[in-house]
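[step 3/7] fold_predict: job queued, chain A
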Amino acid sequence: MFPFIRPTMPEPNQWLPYLRPAYAVRRYSNFGPAHDELERRLTERLCPPGRIALLASSGTAAITAALIALDVRGKVLLPSFTFPATLQAVEMAGCDPVFCDVSAETWEAGCDEIRPWLDRGIHAIVGVRSFGLCRDFSLLSEECARRSIPLVLDSAAALGGRLPNGQLVGGQGTMEAFSLHATKVFGIGEGGVVFAEPSQAARLRQAINFGLNGETVSRGFNGKLSEFAAAVGLAVLDRFDLFLQVRRRRAARYGELLQQYPDFRCPRDPGDPPWQTFPVRLPEGFDAGEFVRKARDAGLELRRYYRPALNPNPVAQALARQMVCWPVYSDMTCEEIESILAITRELLAG
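[step 4/7] structure written:
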């Protein structure tokens, strides 16, 4: 009845008009007119001051391109509690992954978790905004800057979110990378985007264009976004503010219900995320697998993330056992969220 993922994609008649310039010049990839227009509009609408948007073929490609553009080699630190794409992006960039644990309170790797590693030959850090939560990473950014260690933030599900001070997400670390996968709030099918300083743009474009730069070739790969995906993105941008409003209201209702169950931990001080999903940490000893099965039998699909942990760090392993996510849709009606809450109440009562 209520699947975990229900993408809200624009109809063809909404995005086909954005392809007309591409057909007029017969350019369907390699930085065509729809691609450039989407970068421009994302920069205007969603980039913090001092950053511009640069598109890639996926969120994984966006992280990989950032590491290559920064000429990162050797050991790259990342948290154990994250989606496998974070690790795969590090490996695609030709770097050596090293894992740290995360905080039991924030579910992320902050200064306390990362600082002990900074003198161990780490050449870069890929931090993660778990579940698209929008906490302030400024302290970690400053720590890395003091040591001249690049910090790339994997903010895959956070596009459109705001930090606790109200600033748009995307301006922290050396670069921030986002996913535009169909499961994300800004979903276009497949795609990604990096928010970076304008001075970094040429190197990022070179990285996703086979490393080509005139007559020279450096590290790179084919990570370009097609005109067709960019056209879908332009149509999504037309409705994106409405998607955010709906999701934030529905997430607030989950929070109101689960406050009645203090052993069930909702995200702590999350800023103002776009809420791709609503993550909850179940009590220790609670059978998360059985809970998910009973929810499915009642017509509600829940998912367990990020499972398994990428490395046997204790907090990450505990979170992988206990974390369950509830669905949030961009077109979720008031009646639907109330039905889901009713199912959840029955499950918790049992």
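[step 5/7] annotate
The chain has twelve helices and eleven strands.
The mean pLDDT is 97.
exit 0
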